[in-house]
Design goal:
- The protein is an alpha/beta fold and 443 residues long.
- Helix 3 packs across helix 12, helix 3 crosses helix 13 and helix 13 crosses helix 14.
- The relative contact order is 0.18.
């Protein structure tokens, strides 16, 4: 299971961290943060109603790319959202109301259709909240109406407004992943690194930041190509150059399709290198391409699916997720974006519960922004929504997985703790720090 950056990168890490530009939002000092925290609610006059709410239901919409060439990267949010709602509704809903995904809109990978879907969901369907997974996400109308909005952070423009709740936090911090990369370099005894990315900001920004910080910290980056076409890239010339460069670790900021193509060329040219991917840790991918993926590491933000079998009883939130997904959405239990959907639905329900019986959109926004340690039931590093709209994290916790044979297994963690945490500023031979309070797993 992988995430961005969540879902990264995610992806999604894939992950949330895989995609995403650096959010243009001030870090601020503590006084400024406190002032902004007090204002984390809908602006006056917005969100005062309860569209889609009846005595028995709360109607929610989703907008995602379910058809077209982008569907593989953005189409799986809905099964995770729906599965979480089904679980909640099977236990009576919230205060007697079922949470219903009543409107499932497909933007077909088109910017114009996405904009039309936004107005359909809010103005025509009168949805109480919206879950979003689209490359074309733009926040303006969601913000203008203060509609509670949740989902996959693809390009960093979720940061700031109090009603935008991206899975794992609304600020993407590109620098935060670099200590984990440096740690893997040290642990694999790699002498030099090659870095590959697409020529779009959703990929190149992350890897460009990684290259810069690694070089500043004294690591040898032997080869980079951050201008690969995002569709049907020919990686053979790059693999040949990597072979000549002597790099023994490849860091990829590409999607799973590009990563698999990379692995195929690496095998064909007989390179004995490690690889670090931020996308592709799904069990189905590993099973299908196991012969190509030996020596591949994944870095993910969420508790990896493999921890359930490896450490039974240690990660009950993960076990619940897998059990429910296998019941309500079989085939998506190991899907990174479906996990983002689950986490988004969990946050939505948590905000609705915290808002109480006198339900309005503004009440849910305000109540959600009072949650200080949200983990989606033990699936992710705690998110403090008092600051997660505008402050990048000072620490970074993520999990490593390694492909061994036909399985992908937790790697580099201490004992049964799958997470490894670092100071975001510690790049030169980084040392893991103590797990942050509330982190899933043993202390």
């Amino acid at each position: 299971m992988s995430t961005r950056p969540r879902s990264i990168v995610l992806l999604a890490l894939a992950l949330v961290l895989l995609v995403g530009g650096l959010a243009a939002w001030s870090r601020g000092d503590q006084a400024g943060a406190a002032a902004r925290t007090r204002s984390l609610g809908c602006p006056p006059g917005l969100g005062t109603g309860a569209p889609g709410v009846t005595r028995r239901e709360i109607k929610v919409a989703s907008i995602s790319t379910q058809t077209g060439i982008l569907a593989a990267d953005f189409g799986s949010l809905v099964p995770g959202v729906r599965a979480y709602f089904d679980m909640v509704d099977a236990h009576g809903g919230v205060d007697g109301r079922k949470i219903v995904l009543a409107y499932n809109l497909d933007d077909a990978g088109l910017s114009s259709q996405f904009q039309a879907d936004v107005h359909t969901a809010i103005n025509q369907d009168h949805a109480f909240a919206v879950a979003v997974s689209s490359y074309w996400f733009t926040p303006s109308y969601f913000v203008a109406t203060c509609t509670p909005t949740y989902g996959y952070n693809v390009d960093g423009n979720w940061a700031g407004p109090p009603n935008l709740f991206a899975a794992s936090g609304s600020v993407l911090t590109l620098k935060a992943i670099v200590p984990a990369v440096a740690y893997l370099i040290d642990r694999t005894h790699s002498k030099s690194v090659a870095v590959l990315a697409y020529n779009v900001s959703t990929s190149s920004d992350l890897c460009r930041t990684t290259v810069s910080l690694l070089r500043t910290a004294g690591y040898h980056v032997a080869f980079t190509d951050l201008r690969l076409p995002p569709i049907d890239a020919n990686l053979t010339p790059d693999v040949q150059r990597i072979q000549r460069s002597g790099a023994d670790l490849i860091v990829s900021c590409m999607t799973v399709t590009g990563n698999v193509a990379l692995a195929r060329d690496v095998q064909e040219y007989g390179l004995h290198v490690h690889q670090l991917w931020f996308d592709g840790a799904d069990a189905s991918v590993v099973k299908k391409y196991a012969s190509l993926l030996q020596g591949v590491y994944f870095n993910v933000l969420n508790v990896p699916e493999t921890a359930a079998q490896r450490y039974p009883g240690v990660y009950p939130g993960l076990e619940t997720y897998l059990k429910v997904m296998r019941r309500y959405a079989p085939g998506y239990a190991d899907n990174a974006l479906a996990l983002d959907g689950w986490e988004s639905a969990a946050l939505m329900v948590a905000g609705i519960k915290a808002a109480g019986r006198h339900l309005t959109q503004a009440a849910v926004v305000a109540a959600t922004n009072r949650l200080t340690d949200f983990t989606a039931g033990g699936l992710e590093e705690p998110v403090d929504w008092q600051t997660a709209h505008y402050l990048p994290t000072r620490t970074s916790c993520s999990a490593f997985e390694e492909v061994r044979g036909a399985r992908v297994l937790p790697a580099l963690g201490k004992g049964k703790q799958v997470y490894v945490c670092f100071s975001a500023k510690d790049v030169r031979h980084p040392k893991p720090i103590a797990p942050v309070p509330g982190l899933p797993g043993p202390r």
